[in-house]
Write a structure and sequence with these properties.
By secondary structure, the chain is α/β, with parallel strands linked by helices. The protein is about 35% helix and about 20% strand.
């Protein structure tokens, strides 16, 4: 059984070939596998942890491409669902700057929105050490109920529950429903990872410490805030630490958050959530490892191909 199960969307990303342009000005795109939870599963597998991905893709050429790509990177896709009616979701995006993205999604509906709870393997879910999911599958039914059912089963089995709100406002019908649904899981998760935009959206706080404290009050044991080139913060009961970012030549920040989460969850698998929330030196070491994985990812275009191996992260950290 896998150490880590990631559940959510697997999509076909079409990043712009040309950088420095908005979507309206781009002429060429290239096909790559994407979707934040799928990326996290591959990132963990590359970091030498057993990982699985659960999602739903179209029974089409793109869906089978996603299965093959994720599987070839060492991830268990035995629980992947195929939909004969809805097609695999698509996401077009450009990079006006290395740290900004311009998105356009095609999912009306896409297969990931149709995740079927009746196809979930209860025994499989209850065997995982860590269960990770995001907010994209919380936007619509039946994927919303299916996601929460899977998380509850994994939690009942003793898994650490990790959550990435991953705000994509253009996919939600309105801000009110987005805020309501994204906040719902906070009371049942152990770890929540946000960026500054997501933190302010969820808490109405621009002050990082106050916003993270608000999230912690909902029930998570560990709140992580990632700030790109400004580093990251971690907050737990009696613990608040800031980890600086590594100085690298960023080419494409796409997927850096997913790479960070992969590194973080490897630490959770290795040491357990209780130790990480009590040991400042240990959590700093784990976050430094996660930050290194994210920094390496930013030096190449794309995500899955740019996610680093454990050996590459360790070599990067030597002497730093």
């Amino acid at each position: 059984m896998p150490d880590l199960i990631c559940l959510g969307e697997a999509l076909i990303d079409f990043p712009a070939v040309e950088s420095g342009k908005s979507l309206i000005d781009v002429n060429e795109f290239r096909k790559v596998a994407g979707g934040a939870p799928a990326n996290v599963s591959v990132g963990a597998a590359k970091l030498e942890r057993s990982a699985a991905f659960i999602g739903r893709v179209g029974d089409d050429q793109f869906g089978h491409y996603l299965k093959e790509t994720i599987e070839q990177n060492g991830v268990d896709v035995s629980q992947l669902q195929f939909d004969r009616k809805a097609r695999t979701g698509l996401a077009f995006f450009s990079l006006p700057t290395p740290n900004t993205r311009d998105f356009l999604f095609y999912r009306n509906p896409s297969a990931d929105m149709m995740l079927d709870a009746s196809k979930l393997d209860k025994d499989y879910l209850m065997e995982s050490e860590v269960f990770h999911f995001g907010s994209i599958t919380l936007i619509n039914e039946p994927s919303r109920s299916s996601t929460m059912k899977a998380a509850r089963i994994a939690k009942k089995g003793g898994a650490v529950i990790s959550y990435d709100p991953n705000l994509r406002m253009s996919l939600w019908p309105d801000e009110g429903s987005a805020l309501h649904e994204i906040k719902k899981p906070l009371g049942m998760v152990d770890i929540v990872k946000v960026n500054d935009e997501e933190l302010e959206f969820l808490t109405s706080e621009s002050d990082y410490r106050k916003g993270m404290a608000k999230l912690l009050s909902h029930g998570p044991k560990l709140v992580i805030l990632t700030l790109g080139q400004k580093g990251s913060y971690v907050l737990a009961e009696g613990l608040c630490e800031n980890i600086g970012a590594f100085d690298v030549d960023t080419v494409d920040a796409t997927g850096c958050g997913d790479s960070f989460v992969s590194g973080l969850l490897c630490g959770v698998i290795d040491y357990g959530i209780k130790r990480l929330t009590k040991d400042k030196d240990l959590i700093r070491s784990v976050l430094r490892f996660a930050s290194a994985a994210a920094a390496i990812t930013s030096t190449e275009k794309g995500v899955i191909g740019a996610l680093p191996s454990r050996k590459k992260v360790m070599e990067f950290l030597k002497g730093r």
